[in-house]
Design goal:
Elements: E1 20-26, E2 29-35, E3 59-66, E4 75-79, E5 84-89, E6 92-97, E7 108-112, E8 118-124, H1 125-130, H2 142-150, E9 156-165, E10 171-175, H3 182-192, E11 196-199, E12 202-209, E13 227-233, E14 247-249, E15 252-258, E16 263-266, H4 269-277, H5 287-303, E17 306-311, H6 315-322
Parallel strand pairs: 2-3, 3-8, 10-15, 15-17
Antiparallel strand pairs: 1-2, 4-5, 5-6, 6-7, 7-8, 9-10, 9-11, 9-12, 12-13, 13-14, 16-17
């Protein structure tokens, strides 16, 4: 085991052959965790429904152990105030996770390259051997931080919203700040219809190509295939505790606000971008991440109708959408 966890990330071929492996996938992002101990690859309960078997991963994480972390040498990009800090140097990024009751020493340190494809997760041996917590490598918030940053490399974004799929496959995405009515909306729909809830708090939207319009004959004139947006459930649920690994094409997006009379207002693409961005989980510490997020949301607003929905929390809120014709 390397003595200095501040060294450059090792090449994947330099990592030892792992005795244990776990794999999971969130919104098309595949993650593989490897380690020498079975506990190194334990998945937290919220990730278990997302477990999968695969040969190739988008992100590979090697778990290692140490009793001391060297001083931070990189530039600090973000400080949550109590839970995690993010640093950057020429080798990539460093996430330090701390628990206020234990002092300033991190209990985990994730070293990851700039493309968020390879990482080493260092676990603090003294913390887990002497403390009451089980050594689960990717518990919250590290799992969400990892996926949210990986999405900056793809045409995708995480939104504060709930995804509801009707029996006919129609997918409606309801986005909103905390307290806007996402959990209430979830309860209203589950009471009146047989629907699938992808999540009641965090949804990932990503771009896909319509497989029905891909050209399969090279002799034909090539045409640009149509693009559509798909929403995915995530492990990070709200108070209603819905967290599904499923997905569905998005038919409409509704920006939730409390109001009177269940009023729907179609938003222009520019207004939709502003509303969706305000309810997104975008790493703001790099301007290129923000710019790519805004560009992607522009695609979303052009591909999917977006409405502001001032609603009342009763059955009529559902009926208004069922009777909607774009």
């Amino acid at each position: 085991m390397p003595a200095d966890v501040g060294e450059r990330l090792p090449r994947l071929s330099q990592w030892p052959v792992a005795a244990y492996t776990s794999d999971f996938r969130v919104a098309g992002v595949s993650v593989q965790i490897t380690g020498a101990r079975e506990s190194d690859v334990t998945l937290v309960r919220s990730l278990e429904p997302f477990r999968t078997d695969m040969c190739i991963s988008d992100i590979h994480i090697q778990v290692e152990w140490t009793r001391h972390f060297p001083p931070v040498s990189g530039r600090r990009l973000f400080d949550s105030g109590s839970v995690w800090k993010l640093y950057e140097d020429e080798a990539g990024f460093q996430f330090d996770l701390t628990a206020p009751i234990l002092g300033h020493e991190p209990y985990k340190r994730l070293l990851v390259d700039e493309s968020f494809t390879r990482a080493t997760l260092w676990m603090n041996e003294s913390y887990f051997s002497d403390g009451p917590r089980a050594p689960v490598p990717l518990d919250y918030p590290l799992d969400e931080l990892l996926i949210a940053h990986r999405l900056t490399q793809e045409e995708a974004i995480e939104l504060h919203g709930c995804g509801i799929v009707r029996a006919d496959g129609t997918g409606n995405l309801f986005v909103g700040h905390s307290g806007a009515g996402k959990s209430t909306t979830t309860r209203l729909w589950t009471h009146c219809e047989d629907v699938e809830i992808l999540s009641d708090d965090r949804i990932i939207v990503r771009l896909e190509l319509d497989p029905d319009e891909k050209t399969s004959f090279p002799c034909r004139r090539k045409v640009q295939p149509s693009r559509f947006m798909r929403m995915y459930g995530t492990p990070w649920h709200g108070e209603a505790m819905y967290a599904s690994p499923g997905s569905a094409p998005i038919a409409r997006i509704f920006v939730l606000e409390h109001g009177f009379g269940n009023v729907l207002t179609r938003l222009s693409p520019s207004a939709a971008v502003a509303e969706l961005f305000a309810r997104s989980f975008v790493p703001f510490h790099r301007h290129e991440y923000v710019e790519s997020a805004l560009a992607f949301l522009q695609q979303v607003s052009e591909a999917v109708p977006v409405y502001r929905y001032e609603f009342e929390p009763d059955q009529r809120a559902v009926d208004t959408i069922l009777n909607l014709h774009d």
